[in-house]
Amino acid sequence: MSQCNDSVVIELTQSPSPRSPPAPRLPGYPSFAHFISQDGDAAIYRRYESLSARNLLYLQSELHELEGQLEALDAEDAKDRQVDDQESQKIARLWHHYARADNARAVRHRELQGKIRAKIKEYHEALVLESRVLALSAPTPRSLDMFKRWYLHYPRPVLWGRDKDLFRNEQDLVALAPVETDRLNIFLQKYLGWFLKEKRETSSHEDLFYFPSRRVHRAGAVISIFLSAVLLIGAIVCLVNIDPQNTNFRIGMIVLFTCLFAAVVGLLTNARRAEIFASTAAYAAVLCVFMNNNT
């Protein structure tokens, strides 16, 4: 028996079964979920900003009502202090007296405080969650356009009923996994994404395709390196070939290349203003030092 089992194991190892094709998915929630799981850009959902705000307003008003009831009890205790000062002082200062089950006034306080404790916890949790939702980024125009094209899937949308207009309000949408990219990569994704695509199941939409972000970032890095080298080496070559006595022309070339460098940094990257000023000043300083040494 052991020899037979060993031979079966060897046979299975040497001849693995072919990979079965993916199971078909019904159009609707199954296909929608698969589409979102295929690409992080497609993780777009409703924020329900108006409903969240109304929920917070309701919780706030409920807490405000409970706060008024507590203030009324405190005012009643303060008023009764003139009649029974010792009893009021014990309720306000002595926990064991406050926790007694045979004290009707303390029971009222404890029941109200229990309601406040539960409601204020719910309110604070809702506030924290709402702040996190508000911090989420909106989907990029390219991602949203791709998402809506797939969802509408003419002549019928993926989901029916009221859900056919689920994503109509674009201001109420959030992206759970927004892609951090610069303007150059956005340009590559929008106009040259087709050349960077890879084979992947894309459902029935022939005009939609996938391209991995690593290819876009790699292409953007190559173009950035090329532009940096051209701007630096090109400026040096121009300054070398200009007569050293023609100072005005050389200064004009430095101004021209410095403006080109600032335009490239400002338009093709997400650099902040301070970073643009710093990098442009460093670039101009290098050219000025080279011009002085080459005079």
The gist of it:
The protein is mostly helical and 295 residues long.
Identify the notable features of this structure and list them briefly.
2% strand, two-stranded antiparallel ribbon, 295 residues, single chain, mainly alpha
Helices and strands, with pairings:
Layout (H helix, E strand, L loop, with lengths): L1 H13 L14 H10 L5 E3 L2 H32 L4 H9 L1 H4 L5 H31 L6 H12 L20 E3 L7 H9 L21 H29 L5 H22 L4 H21 L2
Antiparallel strand pairs: 1-2
Helix pairs in contact: 3-6, 8-9, 9-10, 9-11, 10-11
Give a description of the structure.
The chain has eleven helices and two strands. The chain has helices spanning 2-14, 29-38, 49-80, 85-93, 95-98, 104-134, 141-152, 183-191, 213-241, 247-268, 273-293; strands spanning 44-46, 173-175. The chain has a two-stranded antiparallel sheet with strand order 1-2. α9 runs parallel beside α11. The protein starts with a helix and ends with a helix.
Q: In percent, how much strand structure appears in the residues?
A: under 5%
Portion in helices: 55-70%
Q: Biggest sheet: strands, sense, closure?
A: 2 strands, antiparallel
Catalogue the unreliable spans: 1-17
Order of H and E elements: HHEHHHHHEHHHH
Radius of gyration: 34 Å
